[in-house]
Every structure is written in structure tokens, then in C-alpha cells.
């Protein structure tokens, strides 16, 4: 059941064809928003759109293939969204998986690739949609950006050194953008993020399929519970994409109208920080 009504509002989700992005699109549609989402894989995008149109036949929905690391494609996507749906009031920056590597085996090219992905997947969409967000803020009194980030931003792992460092940078960027977009003469835009722990995804399902012989008799639930125990996740399981999406919906909607520059921990107790 939707937390709040978002009738008349337009939302954008990058990386919206699967996982947390798709779950966020679903919850935004359930709340009544018009939603645009993009992805790089045209087939996956088409399948997601078809399923959503069947489930939400009356919804205002727009999709487009778009590489968020191409400033030109993102600018074209932003223009198309405003033309099709109207000015955007909510932007969800959601893109990029983690890179498994230590400092010793991370090449210079890998560092550049990871840092560029994590930063510019936020920078380009934010730059492209900011004028629309400010327009929505001026008209309706609230507009928001939500960045999907990882607990690695505050609790780095040595086997994910490049991703951890990049995630920490994005964590800082959220705070900086929140300050800048709340000051000056332009209408205010709130900026927040979520910090996810281990969330069920295709990546984890593939690791389950590739599990060693001694684990072949384990069901997915058993395997995931053992992983949660090994990682010291206090709630004893992996998170669901829908659980991360609920936190995103809260931060994107007027329910969090007095919240900016902050992060919600969605890690099941994996965080070791107070």
C-alpha cells in the first residue's frame, strides 16, 4: 500500500529496469506519480516496461535507453521526459554495481572507471534535471534528489577498495549538493541518500548458482541466511529491493520535506556505527 499520494508529480529513476531501481519505479507508480526510467539494456528495459504497463494500465510512464555516463544522452533523456510528462519533482540516481578488488590488484584504469561511474552517474543526471526540479520546487514547494549509495561509504571493505572509496566520495557529494541547493536565489531542492547493505539481486543469485559443491544441497534461503550470519547482519537475512525502495520513496516524497543532506541506513544492522 502506498505511503503517500504523489498524484500530479513526475519522478525519474536511473537504472530503473531491475533490482532496487525497478522496485522504486513500482512504488512511485503505486503512489500515483508519473514515472520515467532509463537503462542501458534495451531488452531488459522493454520487458520491465511491458510488465509495468500490464500492472499499471492507467499510469503515465516513459522509458528510454540511456547511458548515464554520456552527458549528451542524459540531456536528451531529460528533455524528452519534460516533453512527455512535465517538469520532474523527484530524481532517483541509481546506477552501478560494486567492483571486487584490493588495492594491490586494482589497476589505474579500474580506478578511473570506478570513480567515473560512481560520480558521473550522479553528476550528469543531477545537472540535466536540476532546472526542472527547481521549476517544480517553485510551483509546488518541494523537489528532491535521492542517491542510492552503499554502506561501503562509511564502512569500507578491503576487498572492494575502489568501490568503497568512490562510495565515500558520493556520500560527501550528497552533503555538498544539499548545502548548495538549499542556498542562493534558486528554489530549494532537497538532496539525500540511502546506504544499502546486502540486498537480494541478480548478482547475489549468480553467486548462489556458482556456489561450491559442499553447498549444493542448500536452498537459496539457507544459503542467504548463512551469508547473513557470516556477514554479521543482525536481522539474519539479505534485504529486499522493495525495502530499499520504501526508504527512497520516503526521501523523494514530501513526507521528508524537512530532511536534506542526510542518509538512511538500510542494512539490516550490518552497520557497526551508532
Task: Characterise this structure.
The protein is α/β, with parallel strands linked by helices. It folds into two domains: 10-197 and 240-266, NAD(P)-binding Rossmann-like Domain (Rossmann fold), CATH 3.40.50; 200-238. Helices cover 46% and strands 14% of the residues. It has eight helices and seven strands; from the N terminus they run βαβαβαβαβαβαααβ. The protein has helices spanning 19-30, 42-55, 71-85, 108-140, 161-181, 202-209, 220-230, 241-252, and strands at residues 10-13, 34-39, 61-65, 90-93, 144-150, 190-196, 263-266. The chain has a seven-stranded parallel sheet with strand order 3-2-1-4-5-6-7, with helices on both faces. Strand 2 (34-39), helix 2 and strand 3 (61-65) form a beta-alpha-beta unit. The longest helix is centred in the middle third of the chain and has 33 residues, at 108-140. It is globular and about 60 Å long. Residues 9-171 form the Ketoreductase domain. It comes from Herbaspirillum robiniae. InterPro entries: KR_dom, NAD(P)-bd_dom_sf, SDR, SDR_fam.
Q: Assign the CATH architecture of the largest domain.
A: 3-Layer(aba) Sandwich
| Rg over C-alpha atoms, rounded to the nearest angstrom | 19 Å
Shape: globular
Specify the CATH class of the largest domain: Alpha Beta
Tell me the structural class.
Answer: alpha/beta
CATH superfamily of the largest domain: NAD(P)-binding Rossmann-like Domain
Main beta sheet:
7 strands, parallel
Q: Order of helices and strands, N to C?
A: EHEHEHEHEHEHHHE
Beta-strand residue fraction? 5-15%
- Rounded mean pLDDT is 95
Low-confidence runs of at least 5 consecutive residues: none
What is the distance, rounded to the nearest whole angstrom, between the alpha carbons of the first and last residues? Answer: 31 Å
CATH topology of the largest domain: Rossmann fold
Number of helices: 8
Question: Which sequence of strands runs across the widest sheet?
Answer: 3-2-1-4-5-6-7
Give the beta-strand count: 7
Tally of discrete structural domains: 2
Helical proportion, percent range: 40-55%
Pfam family, one: adh_short
Protein name: Short chain dehydrogenase
InterPro entries: KR_dom (IPR057326), NAD(P)-bd_dom_sf (IPR036291), SDR (IPR050259), SDR_fam (IPR002347)
Family: Belongs to the short-chain dehydrogenases/reductases (SDR) family.
Amino acid at each position: 500500500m502506498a505511503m503517500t499520494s504523489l498524484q500530479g508529480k513526475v519522478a525519474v529513476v536511473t537504472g530503473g529496469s531491475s533490482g532496487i531501481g525497478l522496485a522504486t519505479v513500482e512504488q512511485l507508480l503505486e503512489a500515483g506519480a508519473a514515472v520515467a526510467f532509463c537503462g542501458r539494456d534495451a531488452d531488459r528495459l522493454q520487458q520491465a516496461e511491458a510488465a509495468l504497463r500490464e500492472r499499471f494500465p492507467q499510469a503515465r510512464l516513459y522509458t528510454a535507453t540511456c547511458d548515464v555516463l554520456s552527458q549528451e544522452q542524459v540531456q536528451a533523456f531529460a528533455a524528452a521526459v519534460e516533453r512527455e510528462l512535465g517538469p520532474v519533482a523527484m530524481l532517483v540516481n541509481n546506477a552501478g554495481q560494486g567492483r571486487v578488488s584490493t588495492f594491490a590488484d586494482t589497476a589505474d584504469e579500474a580506478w578511473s572507471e570506478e570513480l567515473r561511474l560512481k560520480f558521473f552517474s550522479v553528476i550528469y543526471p543531477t545537472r540535466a534535471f536540476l532546472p526542472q526540479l527547481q521549476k517544480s520546487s517553485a510551483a509546488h514547494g518541494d523537489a528532491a534528489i535521492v542517491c542510492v549509495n552503499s554502506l561501503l561509504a562509511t564502512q569500507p571493505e578491503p576487498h572492494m577498495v575502489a568501490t568503497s572509496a568512490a562510495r565515500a566520495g558520493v556520500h560527501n557529494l550528497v552533503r555538498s549538493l544539499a548545502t548548495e541547493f538549499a542556498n542562493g536565489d534558486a528554489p530549494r531542492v532537497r538532496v539525500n541518500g540511502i546506504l544499502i547493505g546486502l540486498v537480494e539481486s541478480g548478482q547475489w543469485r549468480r553467486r548462489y548458482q556458482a556456489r561450491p559443491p559442499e553447498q549444493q544441497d542448500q536452498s537459496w534461503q539457507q544459503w542467504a541466511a548463512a551469508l547473513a550470519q557470516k556477514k554479521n547482519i543482525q536481522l539474519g537475512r539479505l534485504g529486499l529491493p522493495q525495502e530499499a525502495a520504501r526508504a527512497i520513496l520516503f526521501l523523494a516524497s514530501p513526507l521528508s520535506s524537512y530532511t536534506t543532506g542526510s542518509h538512511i541506513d538500510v542494512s539490516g544492522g550490518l552497520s557497526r556505527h551508532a
